[in-house]
What does this fold into?
Amino acid sequence: MFEKTTWIKLPRNVLVGHGVLDDLGEAVGELYLTGRPLIVTSPTPDDIAGDRVRAQFDDPATAVVEEASFDAVEELKETAEAVDPGYLIALGGGKPIDIAKMAADHLGVGFVSVPTVASHDGIVSGRSSIPEGDTRHSVAADPPLAVVADTTLIADAPWRLTTAGCADIISNYTAVKDWRLARRLRNVEYSEYAGALSEMTAELLVENADMIRPGLEESAWVVVKALVSSGVAMSIAGSSRPASGAEHLISHQLDRTAPGRALHGHQVGVASIMTEYLHSGENGEWAAIRDALAELDAPTTAAELGIDDAELIAALTSAHEIRDRYTILQGGINEAAAIEVATATGVIDR
Ligand SMILES: NC(=O)C1=CN([C@@H]2O[C@H](COP(=O)(O)OP(=O)(O)OC[C@H]3O[C@@H](n4cnc5c(N)ncnc54)[C@H](OP(=O)(O)O)[C@@H]3O)[C@@H](O)[C@H]2O)C=CC1
Ligand SMILES: O=C(CO)COP(=O)(O)O
Ligand SMILES: [Zn+2]
It folds into this structure.
């Protein structure tokens, strides 16, 4: 007997390309949304693109968010009560997109995602990832109704944000390994479609690595396509499992213990070098992951993340505590073993 469930929620329109920011109004028109838009953005994207967005709508309202937190979501909901928007437009990086995604879900309105950086795969996914105290909540929320990603704008954004998006995609390799491990050892629900899509996305990105260079619009296009595809894998899975395993646990721990030091994608990239070693040993694919990251100018060592050896080892040994998700780090890794994996992979230098 089949249960009646919503299987996959996906965006209806995805526009990626040169100057498509100016087609946002038209793309929104095709969604038959009513009411005024509330644009949710942060200071830099508002400066760069806010006016171009506002010019395309009648009577738009704007809310500028400064941090990703549950308080920011509540503040946005209060603003929305006064504005009474028909829908939200999230303009910027992961911070405004995550906040708008969660607020839209609570308010029962749709939202449109307008990424101005290709820094991670949350730009399309049906998950909001919000830190709270000692934990991080990856909360289900409806994905955007449409995504409008202007490659001209994204190619102009700082290169390190794009390399972070690439590293977030490369980490799919180990995320899927953790997911399969959890299926074998804990009978966790696993989707062959989502797992295969996630791995293929990482594969294609690595194959096209030589095309991904600073300032090139083609590069922005390749990376955004990969981020969309990874977000779709998460929507199919109904969880972030296809794109978030033990490497993400380590990164979430670093966000707590060394906040603001490095970008999400860079942290998960370095962590995936080590979790691949834990999965497959010295003859596994850890060096290939490291080399792929290096080719894309993403960090491969703790020092390049701005994190000292002790901080990295502490994050490794405590990562399993951050969330109830079965991975290769289940039960924890002790300090000696953490030093061993970090040294063997060159993540720390001893
Ligand atoms: N939902 C999900 O699945 C995921 C969510 N996340 C979340 O995403 C957030 C991090 O994402 P990230 O995109 O790095 O965060 P931000 O939104 O903070 O953006 C990163 C930086 O880029 C700036 N910026 C944005 N657009 C441009 C541009 N075009 N040119 C120059 N600078 C620009 C921002 O400016 P300003 O400071 O003015 O905002 C900010 O300083 C975290 O909150 C993390 O938890 C991470 C991974 C997955
Ligand atoms: O970053 C993500 C996928 O790349 C989201 O994962 P989390 O569910 O761990 O926040
Ligand atoms: Zn991620």
Observations:
- The chain has a mean pLDDT of 95.
